[in-house]
Specification:
There is one protein chain. This protein is of the alpha/beta class. The chain has a five-stranded parallel sheet, sandwiched between helices. Strands 6-7 form a two-stranded antiparallel ribbon. The chain has helices at 9-24, 41-57, 74-88, 107-126, 137-149, 154-157, 178-188, 204-220, 224-253, 265-269, 273-286, 293-304, and strands at residues 32-36, 60-67, 93-97, 131-132, 169-170, 254-256, 261-263. Helix content is 57%, strand content 9%. The chain contains twelve helices and seven strands. It has two domains: 9-204, Rossmann fold, CATH 3.40.50; 224-304, Chorismate Mutase Domain, subunit A (Up-down Bundle), CATH 1.20.59.20. Helix 1 (9-24) packs across helix 7 and helix 9 packs across helix 11. It is globular, with a radius of gyration of 22 Å. Helix 3 links the parallel strand 2 and strand 3.
Length: 305
């Protein structure tokens, strides 16, 4: 009989993060949730903690591995991850293959769309309440910096939420550092895969991770990643309030039919810019449009002139 690994601080922190996220989202005995696994330390730590806590709480945890077929040997990596998950106690593990086609949105975005499509399909097939993702505090900090660098709005700089806006994805590890997930796997005797693309600085996120953040830590002192993640949390609270106010305003100034949205100009004029922009964005969204800032500004100009 194999001995259970000694509980270490890293293992305790990740397990606690999973329990707390489940409690906040009302996940309880009898529920089924899936966890997306790449074979890296973040997703394997999440998977190992989830299967451990799931068995204790009567929560079924399934695992899904998406093979993008973008690197040589990717199927071998996926099958190795599956073997690791089975050894951790998972009974349902599925490797899903996707084909990523080069598109105008770029390879990274195309791969992301293909991956989330596969995750959604897996969750729907098995009736999973949520799909858990292994994004950490470091990922959150990188997201905030990328948003700042691109001149994005508050929603982008607010980063990722624990529960995605569509209610499909749960990120329990947004308060956990990457070094903790690495330690979790090391302490648990879990072999992880280190994606070579995570060292390729042609990718913006890798450049931020390997070049920008280390410089900020060196020049401004430690705690930069935590500060960026804290900023994201503050913005998320502000955005929740603004979005709620915009929803009320939309009801007051908009009339919708099957194929049109009519906005009352006088009502729009009285709204603050932050709320008016959101009302216009929602109206265009209902028409199937994903507008850029310049298009929203153009509609604003029509309203205010």
């Amino acid at each position: 009989m194999a001995s259970r690994p000694r509980l270490t601080p890293a293992m305790a922190d990740v397990r606690r993060a999973v329990r707390d996220a489940w409690d906040r989202q009302g996940i309880s005995s009898g529920d089924l949730i899936s966890v997306a696994v790449s074979g890296g330390a973040d997703s394997l730590a999440l998977a190992a903690a989830s299967i451990f806590e799931g068995k204790r709480a009567g929560i079924d945890v399934f695992a899904v591995i998406v093979n993008h077929n973008l690197q040589k040997g990717s199927m071998e990596v996926a099958l190795k991850a599956k073997e690791t998950l089975l050894s951790l106690g998972f009974e349902t593990v599925e490797v899903m293959e996707v084909q990523v086609k080069q598109a105008s949105i770029g390879m990274e975005a195309a791969a992301r769309n293909a991956r989330y499509g596969a995750l959604d399909s897996f969750a729907k097939t098995h009736g999973a309440k949520f799909t858990m993702l292994g994004h950490t505090l470091d990922d959150q900090a990188e997201t905030v910096l990328l948003g700042l660098a691109r001149g994005s709005g508050a929603k982008s700089i607010a980063g990722m939420q624990e529960l995605s806006s569509d209610g499909k994805y749960l990120r329990p590890l947004l308060g956990i550092r990457r070094e903790t997930t690495v330690a979790f796997c090391s302490d648990s005797g879990i072999a992880v895969w280190n994606d070579p693309q995570n060292k390729d600085t042609k990718f913006s996120r890798v450049k931020v991770r390997r070049k920008v953040l280390p410089v900020l830590e060196k020049e401004l002192g430690p705690g930069i990643a935590e500060a960026l993640a804290k900023t994201a949390g503050i913005l998320q609270e502000d955005l929740e309030y603004l979005d709620a106010q915009a929803a009320k305003a939309f009801k007051a100034v908009a009339k919708t039919t099957n194929n049109s949205v009519v906005l009352e100009v006088k009502g729009l004029e009285k709204l603050s810019a932050a709320i008016r922009n959101r009302v216009i964005l929602k109206a265009l969204g209902l028409l199937g449009v994903e507008p850029a800032k310049v298009q929203i500004d153009s509609i604003n100009a029509l309203v205010l002139r």
